[in-house]
Amino acid sequence: MTRPPEALPCLLMRGGTSKGAYFLASDLPAEPALRDELLLRVMGSPDPRQTDGLGGAHPLTSKVAVVSPSADPNTDVDYLFLQVGVERAEVSDRQNCGNILAGVGPFAVERGLVAAGEERTTVRIRMVNSGGRATAAFPTPGGSVRYTGDAEISGVPGTAAPVLIEFPPGDAPLLPTGRVRDEIDGVPVTCVDNGMPTVLIAAASLGVTGYELPRDLEEDVALADRLRGIRLAAGRLMGLGDVSGTTVPKLTLLAAPRDGGAVTTRTFIPVRCHPSIGVLGAAGVAAGLRIEGGVGADLARIDAGSDRIRIEHPTGFLDIESSLGATPGGLPSARRTAVVRTARKIFDGIVFPRPPGTAPLPARSPGGPR
Q: How far apart, in Å, are the Cα atoms of 96 and each of 13, 66, 136, 158, 170?
């Protein structure tokens, strides 16, 4: 049966603590402006409830993965992450997403881009947004992706099959400003990039504890104003330019741990406070805590004999395997980063976008790869 116009093959999947629509690049327009306009209609944006689309009325559930075979001989697939605005007609490619990344390997097998192993499959992934690479390993007994298992991650009910994601060291400096500490608006910060530009801030330096509920932090107007100023200044310091229209860098407030972890976090994405923490944001926190003299190093409780760092967040914790090396100039650099996530296929079928002409055209964030 012939599909109607703009009836798109789509796989909706939970990846880590996020949820998104996964597409083959070949099923979407190649022109970014046309692709983004179509995805706004798929997700039901702009609308605070996203009633007429797949979006879940929150940045964590308004995400898209675009996957294609990779021309790079060292990777199997290319993965472009797109953050679709909820209330704004905006699609951004300025960041990676480590949670949605957890579903890319299974999706590649589901769509036949990578042949499944008889017991386990490893997919090599190029993250188009940053040029970084990752490998995802997951069970495929009998040559089919298994989603059920006993791995549990905070922020997701129940258990599922583990997806082990490893990030080889990238070319970008771990400390984009070249300094362990900077000061912005009188507040000490450490700017790190371990796959996601992230700014580490001691919660106490902003007059909060770091243990508040996300909604209480979101409703603090004075705090929001200070965070906005810090983020804009940090973007310039980190070489990102004007970040007023982008979602990076992320800001993470740090406090001493309460539940046996290394540190407690509250992360802003960039205005909403994350109910947990993103994978790559947590990777930045874990690396930052190991930097001598960095913001948060005096708050953290780290086992020096283990690579594992437990990051506490509002709904539980996330364990990151993290170790550092050094650059020829003596600055710290990321050596190993790995995390266990889970993913689950929710539906695989056809999505019918809202008709064209029913919403404003998308506002493009400046710069970034296309």
A: 17, 12, 15, 26, 13
